[in-house]
Design brief:
Elements: E1 6-18, E2 25-38, E3 43-47, H1 54-61, E4 69-74, E5 77-78, H2 84-91, E6 94-97, H3 111-121, H4 130-140, H5 157-169, E7 175-179, H6 187-204, E8 207-212, H7 215-221, E9 224-229, E10 232-238, H8 239-244, H9 249-256, H10 263-267, E11 307-309, E12 313-315, H11 320-326
Helix pairs in contact: 3-4, 3-5, 4-5
């Protein structure tokens, strides 16, 4: 097996935040000891409820925010240890597509000029050829190159996200983080953008970290999936195995709660009880135990480590083997 393109080792990130009007400030662990490896051309999905640390993880992998502990390697190079000049050169190969395509674009500049920024900053082609390259990128994402002089507000939401993707591809990256890139779009437009991302990944050989709360979307696009809860990875493995026979109670609940057009699936839907615990005062032991129908006394005492489960998966649950046998 070839060495991973991107690798996280023991990655953690904490923030200082105010817990309430009279509570003062406290430390919140947004991401806790995440290990992750992404191969060249591989699509990895990260799923979980809002606030579970998905976006923080993605931004740490790009060195947009530094980790509190752990490290990120790109082709074996520790991003934290790199000189600024070398990190700047490496940034060309790591890009991000944000959730809101309108907020991520400058409303006062033509879209062609914004796509050209990455080309000019990294000196990727002669100045005389920049416009041709911009037109090529617009065509690549399914837009009319003649519209390069238009402003962002002249496009629909789906078209703006295509522009954001073209801008990310302008620097010829090897690794792209897509942070909820279709959550703000209509369902029909979502499918078009997802198909575009799948086609571009195959055509360009991109490694992709796809962040989403929508399990259907991740299943459509990714070969491997990480499930996060309160900053921790609770299950990881091939998408087919994870969706076919989820091992962690949280993964099972997420999949069971996914809306379906089939009557039997609707009848068997399992809604997660309660609310996600506060990050200021997380539960002792297993962070999911307060919402878990399988929790026992030991779950309040031991923080389950991520351990091998089967041939290709890992799970952080003390009772995963018992639950699997019972089902």
């Amino acid at each position: 097996m070839s060495a991973p393109l991107v690798q996280a080792q023991g990655l953690s990130r904490s923030f200082r935040a105010r817990g309430g009007l009279f509570a003062g400030t406290a430390e919140i662990m947004a991401v806790k000891e995440v290990d992750l490896a992404i191969g060249r051309g591989e699509a990895v999905g990260v799923v979980g409820e809002s606030g579970c640390g998905k976006t923080t993880l993605g931004r740490m992998l790009l060195r947009l925010i530094p980790p509190s502990r752990g490290r990120v390697l790109f082709e074996g190079l520790d991003l934290e240890a790199l000189p600024r000049s070398q990190l700047r050169r490496l940034r060309r190969r790591m890009q991000i597509v944000f959730q809101d395509p309108y907020a991520s674009l400058d409303p006062r500049r033509p879209v062609g000029a914004q796509i050209a920024d990455g080309i000019l900053i990294h000196n990727l082609c002669p100045n005389a050829s920049v416009q041709d390259r911009v037109h090529e990128l617009l065509a690549l994402v399914g837009l009319d190159p003649a519209h390069a002089q238009r402003l962002p507000h002249e496009f629909s939401g789906g078209q703006r996200q295509r522009i954001a993707i073209a801008r990310a591809l302008a620097s010829r990256p090897d690794f792209v983080v897509a942070d909820e890139p279709v959550s703000a779009l209509d369902v029909s437009v979502q499918a078009q953008v997802l198909n575009l991302l799948a086609d571009l990944r195959a055509q360009l050989g991109l490694a992709l970290l796809f962040i989403s709360h929508d399990l259907h979307v991740v299943r459509h696009l990714c070969e491997r999936v990480l499930v996060m809860y309160l900053g921790r990875v609770v299950e990881e493995g091939p998408a087919a195995q994870l969706f076919g026979a989820p091992a962690h109670p949280y993964t099972r609940a997420l999949i069971a709660a996914t809306p379906s057009i089939h009557a039997r699936a609707r009848e068997n839907r399992l809604l997660l009880p309660g609310e996600t615990p506060s990050a200021f005062t997380p539960p002792s032991g297993c962070p999911f135990r307060t919402r878990c129908i399988h929790a026992v006394a030991k779950c309040a005492e031991v923080v389950p480590a991520l351990r091998p489960f089967g041939d290709a998966r890992s799970v952080a649950c003390l009772r995963a083997d018992e639950i699997a046998l019972a089902n």
